Amino acid sequence: MEDANTRIDTTVAHPARRYNYWLGGKDNFAADRESGDAIAGALPAIRTSAIENRRFLRRAVIHLSRKLGISQFLDIGTGIPSAGNTYEVARAITPDARVVYVDNDPLVLEYSQELVRGSAGAVAYLEADLRDPQRILNDATLRATLDPGRPVGLMLLAVLHFVGDAEHPYRIVKDLVSALPAGSCLVISHATADFMSPETAAAVDEAGTRSGVPSRLRSRAEVARFFEGMSLLPPGVVPTTQWRAAAEPQPRPTPAEAAMYAAAALVR
Ligand SMILES: C[S@@+](CC[C@H](N)C(=O)[O-])C[C@H]1O[C@@H](n2cnc3c(N)ncnc32)[C@H](O)[C@@H]1O
Questions:
Q1: Residue 3 has what pLDDT?
Q2: Which of 23, 39, 41, 252 yields a CA-CA distance of 20 to 30 A from 15?
Q3: Is the CB of 129 under 6 A from ligand 1?
Q4: Is the CB of residue 158 below 6 angstroms from any atom belonging to ligand 1?
Q5: Which atom of ligand 1 has the smallest separation from the CA of 54?
Q6: 43-100 pLDDT, tens per residue?
Q7: pLDDT value at position 55?
Q8: Binding site membership of 23 for ligand 1 (Cβ less than 6 Å)
Q9: Which one, of 265, 262, 256, 268, lies nearest residue 45 by Cα?
Q10: Does the Cβ of 77 fall within 6 Å of ligand 1?
Q11: Which residue from 39, 80, 104 has its CB within 8 A of the most atoms of ligand 1, so it is best to mutate?
Q12: What is the CA 46 to chain-centroid distance, rounded?
């Protein structure tokens, strides 16, 4: 039988492991570090961008838990679990919080097992691809873990920029959101070139494509389009560093350093 180890190709860069490298983790390989360094060569603030994305994740989960009473999360494009993952943050506020993690990197599955085992059924992990939302929504483990009658926090953080325009990113998000009850909340963070010079944007694009991890940076309007038909929560679509960040250490990194937008919206 094929197991995760036989499917983990460490010779090509992968977003989860490259992100782990930027965050200072140890779960990455030479190809990930090369790709990470290539992006950092074009965008020296990339590590700040990654750290600020994690800070945004934390603030968003706290906000959904405390202010909206959301206690179950579907976190797609989870990344290699690290301190401050969605379950850890949610559980600190809501002890019976439930989380389904989804990622398409078999290495993430490996690292998630411990978290799943220690959660007594409150955390499930499924290896699946965001580009196949029906497979995610119909998964038996997901259905056994999340209560379909109660609001869900749908977390799509730093993952939609890996879905190209030809792969129907807006339809994917719509399909996922349509399956959620009213009162659910869609949370997105997304890489953008809005604060880069055209030369920097081209260099980032080239470095990603050359190292095998192409991404589609989207403008503010393109990110806002993911929330069509929903009620955006204040402050709307803003750089990750500015989303409900009054309590964070000041001064905040600049939008150019953030290089990502963040927003959350209620499902009506
Ligand atoms: C940059 S990391 C973000 C991790 C986490 N969401 C965060 O914001 O801290 C992107 C994650 O998305 C995953 N990913 C990329 N494309 C995906 C896809 N099509 N389906 C599922 N996961 C995907 C990668 O494996 C990686 O773990």
A1: 55
A2: 252
A3: yes
A4: yes
A5: 9
A6: 999 999 999 999 999 999 999 999 999 999 999 999 998 889 999 999 999 999 999 9
A7: 98
A8: no
A9: 256
A10: yes
A11: 104
A12: 16
Our answer on whether the CB atom of 127 is closer than 6 Å to any ligand 1 atom is no
Per-residue pLDDT of 11-30, as tens digits, reads 999 999 999 999 999 999 99
Q: Which one, of 197, 160, 179, 191, lies nearest residue 76 by Cα?
A: 160
Strands (E), the chain: 72-76, 98-103, 123-127, 153-157, 185-191, 231-232, 238-239, 260-266
Q: What is the pLDDT of residues 92-128, one digit of tens each?
A: 999 999 999 999 999 998 888 888 998 989 999 999 9
- pLDDT over 90 (residue 247): yes
Q: Does ligand 1 come within 6 angstroms of the Cβ of 53?
A: yes
Q: Are 53 and 158 in contact (CB under 8 A)?
A: yes
Please name each of the domains of the chain with its CATH number. Answer: 4-266 (3.40.50.150)
Residue 103 CA to ligand 1 center (angstroms) comes to: 6
Nearest residue by C-alpha to atom 24 in ligand 1: 16
Look at 113-122, 196-205, 241-250 and tell me which has the smallest mean pLDDT. 113-122
Evaluated on CA atoms 244, 247, 253, 254, the torsion sign reads positive
What is the SS3 assignment for 214? Answer: coil
